[in-house]
Amino acid sequence: MHNYLEFERPIADLEGKIVELRQLAAQDPSMKIDDEVRRLQARADQLLRETFSRLTPWQKALVARHPARPHFSDYATALIEDFTPLSGDRLFGEDEAIITGLGRFRGESVAVVGQEKGSDTQGRIKHNFGMAMPEGYRKAQRLFDLADRFDLPVISFVDTPGAYPGVGAEERGQAEAIARSTQACLALRVPFVCVITGEGMSGGALGIAVANRVYMLEHSIYSVISPEGCASILWRSADKTQDAAAALKITAQDLLNLKVIDGIVPEPMGGAHRDRHATLKAVGDTIAGALEEMRGLPRDALRRKRREKYLAIGRDLPT
After folding, report:
1. pTM assigned to the model
2. How far is the first Cα of the chain from the last one, in angstroms, to the nearest whole number?
């Protein structure tokens, strides 16, 4: 059974009935359920398509945060061969929210960085729910420096509710660490591809996302602040969260229209968690296409084009 979101309740009811019928048929082989199962499945599929064709920005945020959505560890396992993690920032310690390493993507040596939220309670605590400390961004900066030195393309997977806002993180220079990591992104002279796989919130996401090509999964979100944070600041009320989500233009479709991102990776109907294999393949194909487009470009041209890309954001917007 899927972990259903609140707005998926009608779909859950139909799919629950299908499960119940199959369980009854397993107990009584003489039961004929094929026609009824087909009818219910067709209705559930239709309802799923209708629901996901008109998701609100807030509903997309809920899908982006779905606990069963593929995480960095899933992408690394499926797409990166011989992945070798690189730990520590050589200044303070190891951060588990940001994972960096070297490996091979479809035969090509690459540097990889991504945010890991964890898939169960123990994992979420270990990875601090994907909220990185300053040492995480300094570790990412170390990877960017290695990639530039050895001419390795960089692949980044973004999925974070934001950088960790605790006292310890601030004492160790959270803002400076994110700024330096962003600066290292802009200084790279190698192909750099970023995919926002879930939620990309605030500078916590931007610190590893200033790439030549930025893509978002269809139901992912990307914003300067979370809808909840925006609602608490502007309206001082959690009741305005849905209004904030709409106003922030957090969806992939909005951000493509605003020319903040370069493309959208389609998700299986019902979200990435319903067909993880298809999602992982689609992301891999998108990364491969982006790297192929940049193959052979001079190193200085890659850096120049990346900087021009970000300087151009907001200058020529649709009316």
Report:
1. 0.93
2. 44
Q: Is residue 319 part of a domain?
A: no
21 to each of 10, 44, 138, how far by Cα in Å? 17, 15, 54
Residues 89 and 213 reside in one and the same domain: yes
Check which CATH number belongs to the domain holding 304 and give it: 3.90.226.10
Is 182 inside any structural domain?
A: yes
- Alpha-carbon radius of gyration of the chain: 21
- Tens place of pLDDT for every residue, the chain, 319 residues? 468 999 999 999 999 999 888 888 888 777 778 888 889 999 999 999 999 999 999 999 999 999 999 999 999 999 999 999 999 999 999 999 999 999 999 999 999 999 999 999 999 999 999 999 999 999 999 999 999 999 999 999 999 999 999 999 999 999 999 999 999 999 999 999 999 999 999 999 999 999 999 999 999 999 999 999 999 999 999 899 999 999 999 999 999 999 999 999 999 999 999 999 999 999 999 999 999 999 999 999 999 999 999 999 988 776 6
* 118 and 217 housed in the same domain: yes
Q: Tokens standing for 221?
A: 């979100």
Same domain, 111 and 257: yes
